[in-house]
């Protein structure tokens, strides 16, 4: 019997999935993986998901949020996988955040009880679909707005056939040089007033994304993030003091926080959380970190808040790439059979973590080896002088940026623990990226 992922949904394997061995074709995927085949039996290129690391990461984040006094609405765009979302929900997540209206429709199809669209919803057909969901279902749907125009579109389309429940809207505050979001408090307040004026909408809180304002963990970057979050708190305070929030909203939302600065978000905003409404309106403070579920061996490893604070636990990378050396055309150079179509490259090239010699199941260290470039289907590996790796050996790669790892794979093989001498496959996760 497999674990609690998606092997059963794959049905009979037909050879169309990268990494699955040709001998598995014609076999039921769940039956094949229930036999715990050795990782070394799979073909390359391959990306694996470490079950033990995922389990540890979800629990580490749960404990961190509990200590910090914040809630969590993890960003589902990272994985677009129902089973991984469910693990996050089971660990106490408020709901799931999505990035696009199409992802919102997927979340509703998957019966996610609470969904936050961290974006404006201005496409009429998607608005009509959301209106139908509000009218016929019980899912809680929250969207953002950063312009009066967006509010007008939402109000006009929903007014065509008013749903029985209003659409909850958060005013998004940005900052000059950032991504989306109103660029100043005055504009944000105008947007809020437009929401208040619409019977089909309910002003439910404020939102923002600090990750677009900084890209490092130095003191200057952290102060930029802190200043921005204080302005977000001030906007919430102004709306609260002015009585602008909709009485139909049971719990207001203040949300920020990607995977890079969630510690600063908690530092600045956690004090606003008041789940019982002891000081007036009930307020939840929600992080939206998503990459933590798999972490990585690149960008997030370098900038994670857990690396800035002792005694907070550690995330472990749960994603690894595997590629076979197919050419040694020059001394000190190896070409492997996985490239940009298989592994992420937008937040740094993969790192060489070891080599599995042909015919062996054990990964050995390979000090001094680095990746230097990637083509569509090849990665260039620079080898130290005298390296004896050969064509047919398999390189293990640490990957940077899970969001652009998952979207390259229809199914990832789940292994028990990459730290074992001979890891075994135990399940698979499927992805939904359109």
Automatic annotation (TrEMBL):
SUPFAM superfamilies: PLP-binding barrel. InterPro entries: D-amino_acid_metab_enzyme (IPR051466), D-ser_dehydrat-like_dom (IPR026956), D-ser_dehydrat-like_sf (IPR042208), PLP-binding_barrel (IPR029066). SMART domains: D-ser_dehydrat (SM01119). Residues 318-416 form the D-serine dehydratase-like domain. Signal peptide: none annotated. Gene3D superfamilies: Alanine racemase, D-serine dehydratase-like domain. Pfam families: D-ser_dehydrat. This is D-serine deaminase-like pyridoxal phosphate-dependent protein.
